[in-house]
Amino acid sequence: xxxxxxxxxxxxxxxxxxxxxxxxxxxxxxxxxxxxxxxxxxxxxxxxxxxxxxxxxxxxxxxxxxxxxxxxxxxxxxxxxxxxxxxxxxxxxxxxxxxxxxxxxxxxxxxxxxxxxxxxxxxxxxxxxxxxxxxxxxxxxxxxxx
Length: 146
Description:
By secondary structure, the chain is of the alpha+beta class. About 45% of the residues lie in helices and about 30% in strands.
């Protein structure tokens, strides 16, 4: 029997300090550990960074994504962690991504133009559905390029 799937969407404020190189190192560390843990826990999803905020979609068994979200809330690199959505889903939007990452390249910035115009790309002003759709569309584009 297959466990029910859930999707959790949250955003948080970046509390990682340092210059661009130090920040990149921290993000690389976050991604490496997340990918390792997510493969183990059967979690898929994507992470977005822009304008001092993180937004993330996690998909998988409810108890696993709740435990992951609890670790994120306890992580000093995240501040003002806000749950935007937690829903049962029929299928994953990120089946091939233990943790996709978008948001730092110039190309990504261009793709955010529509959302940026309506929200100033303040992630806290986006709904869970908007963040999910944005990340899903960006990962589909990444898969097409790869």
